[in-house]
Write a structure and sequence with these properties.
heterodimer, A: six-stranded mixed beta sheet, B: mainly beta, seven-stranded mixed beta sheet, four-stranded antiparallel beta sheet, 11 strands, 0% helix
Chain lengths: 113, 114
């Protein structure tokens, strides 16, 4: 079953604008990861944030984590057409579950030039 | 380093047949996980292998099985295929079996069951 939901399901913006995607989850986590998927291909790891971290940056990406609200957000600044993809948040599946990830349903981002 | 490779990339099978998919992890990675992606159910964890042992299993029927070889390469098998098994099957490798480590995904195998 899905751990959580991404919001919005779809987002259309112009190049240069910022894109914000939100993710909510249901159970306690050790960490949360964001992945990108281009048109039904493999997933590309973007960033991992641990439960004791509140914010993390990587290039044009900024991720926040609010464990009290069980939510995370991914901000992509100065979007480019190449950022067009689906974005998924994924959480660990709990104690003893190894590397198993629980994914949300994803946000489809479309960036037009 | 070469990335995760999956073969074949595309596969068409008939209901009732069986299929074997292959995954070669990044060199040095010992953990291999498999995921199924469908439009309706999204990405779902199938199982994880580490050092030739299945460490975790998702909520899938026994028709889905897998194994890992001593060189960390992994295969998954689906027997008695059903139409609902049509999906993108993704393999991911990781350095360890502990949580908190990023996983590297392959390009996937697109399975179509007719």
């Amino acid at each position: 079953s899905q751990q959580g939901e991404e919001d919005p399901q779809a987002l259309s913006i112009q190049e240069g604008e910022n894109a914000t995607m939100n993710c909510s989850y249901k159970t306690s986590i050790n960490n949360l990861q964001w992945y990108r998927q281009n048109s039904g291909r493999g997933l590309v790891h973007l960033i991992l944030i641990r439960s004791n971290e509140r914010e993390k940056h990587s290039g044009r990406l900024r991720v926040t984590l609010d464990t009290s609200k069980k939510s995370s957000s991914l901000l992509i600044t100065a979007s480019r057409a190449a950022d067009t993809a689906s974005y998924f948040c994924a959480t660990d599946a709990g104690p003893g579950a190894g590397t198993a990830l629980i994914f949300g349903k994803g946000t489809t981002l479309s960036v037009s030039s | 380093k070469a990335g995760v490779t999956q073969t074949p990339r595309y596969l068409i099978k008939t209901r009732g047949q069986q299929v074997t998919l292959s995954c070669s992890p990044i060199s040095g990675h010992r953990s291999v996980s498999w995921y199924q992606q469908t439009p309706g159910q999204g990405l779902q964890f199938l199982f994880e292998y580490f050092s030739e042992t299945q460490r975790n299993k998702g909520n899938f029927p026994g028709r889905f099985s897998g194994r890992q070889f001593s060189n960390s390469r992994s295969e998954m098998n689906v027997s008695t295929l059903e139409l609902g098994d049509s999906a993108l099957y993704l393999c991911a490798s990781s350095l360890t079996t502990q949580t908190g480590y990023e996983q590297y995904f392959g390009p996937g195998t697109r399975l179509t069951v007719t």
